[in-house]
Design brief:
The protein is mostly helical and about 200 residues long. It has 3 domains: about 55 residues, no CATH class; about 50 residues; about 70 residues, no CATH class. It contains 11 helices and no strands. Helix 6 packs across helix 7. The longest helix has 30 residues. The protein is elongated, with a radius of gyration of 26 Å.
Length: about 200
């Protein structure tokens, strides 16, 4: 028992394990991991001094959000992030780490979103008008999407849909909205079939 106790007190999580885990995480993310994304970040920081030093020790270049990024690159990052999340990231959260830089380059977050051809508040639109657009009901949002599908022969993408913000507010994500639309379409088709059979039965 005494020997086991001494072993547990002297045992130290291997440095090479931390380095390997960080490298694997960075490879999976396609970038330097953030501190909160690594479960042993606290241990690593105590051991190596800082998160930046930890990453560099693992041969990973720390993510520098201050590094200047071109407008086109910012737009590409926003579009990719929107596709990942299923909704437009908020500028006030950590969902888009380059938000401050985007606002400086484009003048405002809404201007940045509009430049990416995503649905934000329209240029020159007042807060009142913007809020008015957000008062769509669940039914009206679904009906509009189904109408667009009927006209275009396919379901609209989130870029084509004019009230994406309203969708996100009411359905939490674009994917959940799409599922709700599919469900409504299914219900409509069954309702139409039932009506046909009812009429056939009545004619007999």
């Amino acid at each position: 028992m005494v020997e086991m106790k001494r072993f547990s007190q002297n045992w130290r999580y291997p440095d090479e394990n931390i380095m390997d885990e960080l490298k694997s995480l960075a490879e999976g993310l396609g970038r330097a991991p953030k501190r909160r994304e690594y479960v042993r970040s606290g241990m690593a920081i105590k051991r190596y001094g800082s998160w930046t030093d930890t990453l560099r020790r693992a041969g990973i270049e720390p993510l520098d959000v201050r590094k200047s990024i071109s407008k086109d690159h910012l737009i590409a990052i926003l579009i990719q992030k929107t596709e990942e999340l299923g909704y437009i990231p908020r500028s006030t959260s950590d969902e888009f780490i380059h938000a401050k830089q985007a606002i400086v380059k484009f003048g405002s977050w809404n201007a940045f979103v509009n430049a990416a051809e995503l649905q934000g508040r329209e240029p020159g639109e007042s807060v009142t008008d913007s809020n008015q657009r957000k008062r769509h009901t669940l039914e009206s949002l679904i009906e509009l999407a189904l109408q667009m599908e009927e006209v275009n022969g396919r379901f609209p993408s989130y870029r084509e849909y004019p009230y994406l913000e309203s969708v996100v507010q009411r359905f939490q994500s674009w994917s959940k909205f799409v599922l709700a639309c599919k469900k409504r379409k299914f219900e409509k088709s069954h309702s139409a079939s039932d009506n046909v059979f009812s009429k056939m039965g009545a004619s007999k």
